[in-house]
Amino acid sequence: NAKKELQKSLSKYSAAAAAVVAVGGAANAQVVYTQVNKTINAASPVDSIDINQDGIYDAAMVVYDLGGGDAAIIGGPMNSQGHAFAGSAPSGYNYPFKLNSGVAVNTQVFLAPEAVGTFTFVVGGANPYNSFWNGGVTDGFLGVKLSVGANTHYGWVRMDMAANGLSAVIKDMAYNATAGDAINTAQ
User: Fold this and answer.
1) Could you tell me which of 173, 181, 178 has the C-alpha nearest to residue 58?
2) What Rg do the C-alpha atoms of the chain give, in angstroms?
3) DSSP letter at 87?
4) Is 52 left (phi over 0), alpha (psi -120 to 50) or beta?
5) Cα–Cα nearest to 97, from 157, 33, 181, 187
6) Whole-angstrom Cα distance, residue 162 to residue 9?
7) Quick one: DSSP state of residue 85?
8) I need a surface site. Which of 2, 58, 61, 111 has the fewest CB within 10 A?
């Protein structure tokens, strides 16, 4: 009798677990994830990424080694598609936000479409400007708004930035394939 009850309980548990997995899989089905692992530095200073995997580069980053402890990492949307980075523009300077894990991208303030922004700016080994990525960052998230035809899609790019402003690693990225739907960083 105890054995039958155990088998009955296990059957119910298995059915419930399968239902949870099916619902969880459906909830994340619209998120398209891509592992990248690209490093940009003085030896390889430019890289581009295709966030929504449509064969057209969506964003590019450039490392500038100006010598004497001066360096910058700058990036922006490309190919005149109307994409934008989450960020702020105090005094007319564009600074993309460094978002933490689990932050809703669609609720962010975005820079003007196609606006290039400064991720890091190092002068004489110091960070005198208000970039959110200055001082070295591990696992920071860039929020992106992609314009695909008449539709808006939200996504993220996870990156590391060196404190000296001489290198960055683009680790991975994702976007929500359902137009207008939200995505959280790291989702």
Assistant:
1) 173
2) 21
3) E
4) alpha
5) 157
6) 53
7) E
8) 2
Can you tell me the distance from the alpha carbon of 106 to that of 127, in angstroms, rounded to the nearest whole number?
A: 29
Q: Strands (DSSP E) along the chain, which ranges?
A: 31-41, 46-49, 59-67, 70-77, 84-85, 87-88, 95-96, 117-122, 137-148, 151-161, 167-176
User: Is the pTM for the entire model greater than 0.85?
Assistant: no
Token pair 């990525």 is found at 133
Cβ proximity of 128 and 87 under 8 Å:
no
pLDDT of residue 77: 96
pLDDT tens profile 82-134 = 999 999 999 889 999 999 999 999 999 999 999 999 999 999 888 878 799 99
Residue written as tokens 């739907």? 181
